[in-house]
Design goal:
CATH topology of the largest domain: Transferase(Phosphotransferase), domain 1
Low-confidence stretches: 1-20, 520-581, 878-924
Number of strands: 51
Helix content: 10-25%
Structural class: alpha+beta
Radius of gyration: 33 Å
Length: about 900
Amino acid sequence: MAILLFFLLFFPYLFLPSNAQMPGFVSIDCGAKEKYRDDLGLEWIPDNQFPYGETATTSAASGNQKQYMTLRYFPADNRKYCYILNVMSRTRYLVRATFLYGNFDSSNVYPKFDISLGATHWSTIVISDANTTEVIELIFLALSPTISVCLSNATTGQPFISTLELRQFNGSVYYTDFETKFFMSVSARINFGAESDDPIRYPDDPFDRIWESDSLKRANYLVDVASGTTKVSTIRPINVDKNERPPNKVMQTAVVGRNGTLTYRLNLDGFPGFGWARSYFAEIEDLSSNETRKFRLRLPGMPEYSRDSVNVQENAQGRYRLYEPGYDNISLPFVLSFAFIKSSDSSRGPILNAMEINKYLQINSGSQDATQMGSLTSSYPLADWAQEGGDPCLPVPWSWVHCNLDMQPRVTSITLSGKNLTGNIPSELTKLTGLIELWLAGNSLTGPIPDFTGCTNLKIIHLENNRLTGVLPQSLANLQNLRELYVQNNLLSGTVPRGLLNDNLVLNYSGNLNLHHESSGKKRIKIIIFSVVGASVLFLATAAYFLFMCRRKKAHYKEEKKTNAPPTQKLGSFLIDATVESAHCFGLSEIEDATANFEKRIGSGGYGVVYYGKLKDGKEIAVKVLSTNSFQGKREFSNEVSLLSRIHHRNLVAFLGHCEEKGRNILVYEFMHNGTLKEHLYGPLAHERTISWINRLEIAEDAAKGIEYLHTGCVPTVIHRDLKSSNILLDMHMRAKVSDFGLSKLAVEGSSHVSSIVRGTVGYLDPEYYVSQQLTDKSDVYSFGVILLELISGREAISNESFGTNYRNIVPWAKSHVESGNIQGIIDPLLHTDFDIQSVWKITEKAMMCVQPYGRMRPSISEVLKEIQEAILIERGGSELGEGNSDTISRTSAHSPINVGSREFPEAEPFVSFDDPIAVPIAR
């Protein structure tokens, strides 16, 4: 994988502050041709001297939006493209990148790619609208004199960037105890009570932070606003104490809860995870002497974060003064529901001026060889290959480098053949202790071969076709793993060390006129030292030998096959022999007796028919009989027997055995008394027995646990591939179990996906899998998201009538309602009002995350399960997780998230120290 650099250090004026703006401001208009000043007074610098990438224009607003009229884009290859910016060490900065696609390539292919800061993955940029500007911000403490902002890993489309901005902070603004280990990714910065949709930024905010308006019309930005919420404002200045606090213009507006509450729901980019949060209050209303304003924070399902009563005027020590309570270490979900509730002894409702929430992003300390590699590239300042920014290994390696997969990787391969290298072989290479392959052929290197004794893992060294002088070092014989040594066509002299003349080493030293070896006459030596003619003869002889051996082996195999032909195998037995012993084999007569000769039919499908039965011991069973003319069904039969014989979980339908007799292929399962989920949602049972919302959540929980077991409890992972509401069965207690594993696939260990012909059911099929034919566990997550939407709406996945004239599929139909904030528009009318809207929102938004178009955007099934469990707690009254029903909360598999205190957090979100108190409130 390769890397390419945007070396912005070529612009000496780029880092000089303008007189009109704060020191440390850098504003790069990517693709622009000249510098200019916008309507805000910010000076923009072009990147037009870069030799890399291409520029394009887009249609964008005029005025201060000029920076979005151009962009720079790059090939959709495996390289990373880096901007390098100068910074002041031990100083805090905000770095902001923006992306406006604008269909610059006239392809209407929405790009998806990664962006990183140094060795740390920052974000995955997913464009879903050609005319929407994506903005990401990161707050960091600079620990070195430069930073690298790199684009890489294009999944679709081409990586591009519209602007890149750097803003320097003063003093202790955004200081945390964790800043050397974590960046802060900006998730929300909100100006409540804003007088327009326009954000507040520079020059009102001297640091050019962007404070978004709470009236901004954006999908699920702020919803569930309580009745009685009113905007208030003042023209009086607010005493914010220091300029690092929110600017005056932000604090001069607020919302108040006239009916005693302020409630909101907010999507937090990058969460769930740990973060930094602040609420900003100032009393900007005139209160009489006998009036008070007291309120407290409430986070549904998170009672541990509820605060003591807030009295803004008292806490701030006066009116028109800032009070800033918050948390430096708090765990938050993706969908944050929060409320400020008036205290019983308060005469006024709560007030809220502004809010900031940042997510902690763990800093990757980089590869272990970064220093040596940096020293190596600095020796070749004019070479194109040496102008590559960021870490040599992370998040993706340089074009001429390979690294291992350690958390702090080491360089394992250097490929610099034919790069016009001159001078001695760089000494830095001898210090790369993880190096396995070194390719330096075809350069103009001179001087002696250095001592590589420290590179104990070296297997391959290619130094041929250079101008190296001196002897072939004895130290090379000390490399126990060395298997290839090519030094031909140099100016070496002396004698080949005896230690290099062995059967385990391929050695080529031809073309060195003064280099010889001592012939022992006894030892068989594997040495490549021959002419072109000799090589051709040897090649032809070798080819003839292998051809002869291949024909001989083939003839022997045919003869053996004739004499030792195996007995004819039963249908599918070649797939299930290894596991069939663990599955009970029923006799056909036993099946006929149990089903009264297949009397009661209870279901059917493309595979065949399902019958009800009862064994002699009274156990009720479901008997699936494969259609005799279904080849696909026979393959699914073998697959299902193979899988179900070895996987067992309380939320998977129990497989009792199989029968292969007289041409019949039969699967036997436990009988599920209440049929399929589909029948209860919009089938014949829907109006007879409506499933309540809490029961639907419990069904979703059961099904998610079964899927989680397949994804995390099985080795290798099992991908179901045909999840749908008709494959979720309900027992006599309405507990759900996942069924039908005929299309399931085993994940390939060490691979991110399974290449597979597309199978599944229309309406539930992962669109990314459909296009790429690359199956992952996130394909199941997509299907489960559709099932969640069915549970919410009571509507089927595909319908010509259910969704009006504009839609046929439940996903775009639900998305249109969610984006407009109309959650009621998708809730099943049969639920009436027997639900908490908070839990419905939680599940709806998690469902919408599940059905994102790309797998990397979707949560894991464990994350989905956690949200379902939290929704259940909301429905049950918001009990603390630690005190919840253990059967509901603690039944996750051994591979589920680790437990911290009374809350569960994914293992992928490590934090500073779990010995420290969690969410200690900070107020300044």
